[in-house]
User: Which sequence fits this backbone?
């Protein structure tokens, strides 16, 4: 299960809406091993595409180093789908390489109602998990 | 040339759980060959058909090697090599 603060959900959805129709992507960081996201980091989509996303490699290096220095980890890795449901695509599954992260997808295909779902992706196997949104941890 | 290599979680099964390992070589290709000698199977995770695998980013110091010579990137003593999984999808 992913337990997540409502303000972090709002931040991901706002980012996804702002970049629509291109895909948006980013990270929620938290203390390593805590499984608890505490801060939102919007990442550039280097592809600037409605059908693909890729973290900018230099920005990723900077962010990953800062996380390590702070004893943090990417607890959540998220991106948006702008024309399809919030389910990992074949490409998402082939790239997924953080077995300890929650992969969150936000669909913005409906202009009024977003869809947000969370998955573990390990060795190409996708497992959906419940998302529990809380005001405070 | 001896370098420190930062290994991401996904590849630590090859390094016995180690986050940092040392390797040597005059080019990135040689460093990877040296890694393979100690951590069997790691090359296939880094190299695909003689090129850097699309699923990983490799940095020498602060440079993404995709923009600085790929596997032929020259290595100096004391450089740091960082491997990160590319975060991408559709």
Assistant:
């Amino acid at each position: 299960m992913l337990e997540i603060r409502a303000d972090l959900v709002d931040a991901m959805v706002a980012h996804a809406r702002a970049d629509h129709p291109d895909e948006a992507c980013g990270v929620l960081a938290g203390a390593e091993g805590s499984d608890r996201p505490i801060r939102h980091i919007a990442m550039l989509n280097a592809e600037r595409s409605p059908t693909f996303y890729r973290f900018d490699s230099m920005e990723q290096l900077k962010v990953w180093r800062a996380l390590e220095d702070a004893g943090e980890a990417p607890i959540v890795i998220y991106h948006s789908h702008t024309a399809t449901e919030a389910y990992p695509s074949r490409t998402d599954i082939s790239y997924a390489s953080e077995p300890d992260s929650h992969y969150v997808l936000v669909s913005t295909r409906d202009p009024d109602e977003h869809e947000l779902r969370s998955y573990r992706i390990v060795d190409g196997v996708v497992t959906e998990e419940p998302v529990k949104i809380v005001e405070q941890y | 040339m001896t370098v420190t290599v930062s290994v991401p979680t996904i590849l630590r099964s090859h390094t016995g759980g180690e986050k940092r390992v040392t390797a040597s070589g005059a080019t990135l290709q040689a460093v990877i060959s040296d890694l393979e000698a100690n951590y069997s199977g790691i090359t296939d995770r880094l190299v695909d058909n003689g090129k850097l695998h699309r699923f990983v980013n490799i940095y020498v110091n602060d440079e993404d090697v995709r923009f600085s010579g790929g596997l032929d990137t020259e290595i100096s003593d004391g450089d740091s090599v960082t491997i990160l999984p590319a975060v991408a999808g559709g």
In short: Strands of chain A lie at 2-5, 25-31, 39-43, 53-54, 72-81, 102-107, 115-122, 125-129, 131-134.
